[in-house]
Amino acid sequence: MKVFILLGSNEGDRILFLKKAIQELESLGKLIQVSSIYETEPWGKMEQANFLNCVLEMQTTLSAENLLTQILSIENFLGRERKTKWQARTIDIDILYFGDEVIQTEHLQVPHPFLHQRRFTLVPLVEIAPDFLHPILKKTNQELLNECKDTLSVWLYK
């Protein structure tokens, strides 16, 4: 299954956490491509450090639920603590798309429910998959970015 995953870090050695997360995710399937790294203003809770974000595309034979279980394990391994919503974190790993499937369970919503509202997600996603079609909104990632009302800054990191 073709999967798009968002990585984010704004605590500690952000580049190192992104690299380690990518290494861990590679064990779950075949890495196809990784976007550039973008620095982004925090979304939701502004009083924290900027994030580094990137999106990767991979192929996996895992089910969406099993992939989520593995992702949560990777986040835990890399020191992610879940205390409050939108807090600073060593690593955040979100499944954006799981093929063209629409998944609504207690623990997993795919496509990611806020994907189309966040420039920090759409900018790296458009870099690697501008024409991928959102299975619910029936718009490409490029169209979603063009229509996105989020005004937070997103820029290439170094």
Explain this structure.
This protein has 158 residues and is an alpha+beta fold. It has one domain: Alpha-Beta Plaits. Helices cover 28% and strands 25% of the residues. It has four helices and eight strands, in the order βαβββαβββααβ. The chain has helices at 14-26, 64-77, 119-128, 141-147; strands spanning 2-9, 30-34, 38-40, 51-59, 92-98, 103-104, 109-110, 154-156. Strands 1, 2, 3, 4, 5 and 8 form a six-stranded antiparallel beta sheet that branches. A two-stranded antiparallel sheet has the order 6-7. Strand 6 and strand 7 form a beta hairpin. The N and C termini lie far apart (32 Å).
Q: CATH superfamily, called what?
A: 7,8-Dihydro-6-hydroxymethylpterin-pyrophosphokinase HPPK
The number of helical elements comes to 4
Number of domains: 1
In total, the number of strands is 8
Low-pLDDT residue spans: none
Terminal-residue CA separation: 32 Å
Q: What Rg, in angstroms, do the CA atoms define?
A: 14 Å
CATH fold name: Alpha-Beta Plaits
Taken as a percent bin, the fraction of beta residues is: 15-25%
Can you identify the CATH class?
Alpha Beta
Q: How would you spell out the order of helices and strands?
A: EHEEEHEEEHHE
Form type: globular
- Helix fraction, binned, reads 25-40%
What about the largest sheet?
A: 6 strands, antiparallel
User: Judging by the overall fold, what is the CATH architecture?
Assistant: 2-Layer Sandwich
Average pLDDT figure: 92
Return the structural class: alpha+beta
